[in-house]
Design a protein that fits this description.
Largest interface: A-B, 45 and 44 residues
Strand order of the largest sheet of chain A: 1-2
Mean pLDDT of chain A: 91
Number of strands of chain A: 2
Largest sheet of chain A: 2 strands, antiparallel
Helix content of chain A: over 70%
Oligomer: homodimer
Order of helices and strands of chain A: EEHHHHHHHHH
Number of helices of chain A: 9
Radius of gyration of chain A: 20 Å
Structural class of chain A: mainly alpha
Shape of chain A: elongated
Strand content of chain A: under 5%
Chain lengths: 218, 218
DNA sequence: GTGTAATATGAATCAGTTGTCATGTTTATT
DNA sequence: AATAAACATGACAACTGATTCATATTACAC
């Protein structure tokens, strides 16, 4: 992956002692808070170091620029969201069930980590490359799972990548409408509609004449 | 609508002579280009006036701040997109057909007006209120049409607003993947997948056991 | 405990940016 | 042609915010 080199991102100097470790963390926590509250562009490095309680110069010991600490947080966020959704979805069987639970888990994540999630909304403007990496990598994984589910005949056969983008859009926009804007879960009626849309849209096994005739496995 | 007062936005002084009209337009065109290329935050007023070929002070004759010219462009964009999609969709019958054609028209719009469309992506960060107005107003209209189609039995009965957000997300994300990122229309296979997803997801008349029993028209 | 690398500091530098203003020109109106 | 309103100019005051640097302290290997 081009954004990461080894474990660390470019422009980030990991600390080497435990004292350094502590300030590094303080900076990250402060940045997460302030970015979340005011957004990337309205936040200054001074805001970050003030909240972290360190001096200006200290910031540049660990991060080359303001953008670099932002990137670091975004990559972290990426892992967190995936972990949260994976965890919720793992015990379930069948793509459709996973898909439904996944959507709810995603909405939960937004509610529980508004600040962190807001970074993602900023990402497109701050670093378009990283933004593409983020959704591209998400989509690739997603498509892989969808393809597997198609193999198993759990969902209708179609272009997995296109489907992945449809589903991501659906998740993001519903997550925006209720969790993000209203700060509460989507109401039952909405969830029901979304679930039915997913169910019919993906095509459950019971669907008769819908998809192309199932290919025989080679 | 709270964002507009009369015909003009706050913070915008419309010109009163035809000379003024010309510079006003030059400024808007320049702003559209530069915002589109570099994004809102990376663009300075100097960038705009340089491209427009006018002096600094002239800018402030017509716009109170940089944000105000941005808002003006966004409202313009909102009308343009709607017009473009409406026009493409008007001659068709049936919600599903309109939905399909609408998605293609939206993708076309992105391809033909990249710069203008990019403003929309910036909007969320620049002015969250206006952003909510934008999608909220879009969704409301969308939901109204969907509700009508439900009445007519063209699509499955469900929560129109939730459905509207699903569909907007689907449009935006597929529009991002191909038109925006690759600068070309979505490939045939992807379109087919998206269309089928829409078709089954919305529930077409041919669907037997899916929706609630069709109500007889009054 | 000595020396070296790591960590911390905050004042100073530097590269912009926005928005204003005094001055001058053009246009519309009479 | 006179006049007032509209339009245009570009220098500049006032400010914001990112990054650097000389200096000082602390941690750790030996």
């Amino acid at each position: 992956m081009s954004v990461l080199n080894g474990n660390a991102l470019e422009g980030v100097n990991k600390p080497k002692t435990s004292r350094g470790e502590a300030t590094f963390r303080k900076l990250l926590e402060a940045a997460e808070e302030v970015f979340g509250e005011k957004g990337y562009y309205e936040t200054s490095v001074v805001d970050i170091i003030t909240r972290a309680g360190v001096a200006q110069g200290t910031f540049y010991l660990y991060f080359k620029t303001k953008k670099d600490i932002f990137r670091h947080l975004v990559v972290h966020l990426h892992h967190e969201i995936r972990k949260h959704v994976q965890l919720a979805v793992a015990p379930l069987n069948g793509r459709l069930a996973k898909e439904k639970r996944g959507l709810l888990a995603f909405h939960e994540f937004i509610l529980q980590h508004r600040n962190l999630y807001r970074l993602l909304r900023d990402l497109e403007l701050v670093d378009e490359e990283l933004f593409k990496w983020y959704y591209g990598s998400f989509a690739k994984n997603y498509a892989r799972r969808l393809a597997k589910a198609m193999e198993k005949g759990e969902i209708r056969r179609s272009d997995p990548e296109a489907l992945a983008y449809c589903l991501m859009g659906l998740n993001v926009f519903t997550g925006m409408r209720w969790p993000l804007w209203e700060n509460k879960p989507a109401p039952a009626g909405a969830v029901e509609t979304i679930f039915t849309f997913l169910e019919k849209g993906l095509g459950n096994p019971g669907d008769g004449p819908a998809g192309p005739p199932p290919k025989e496995p080679p």
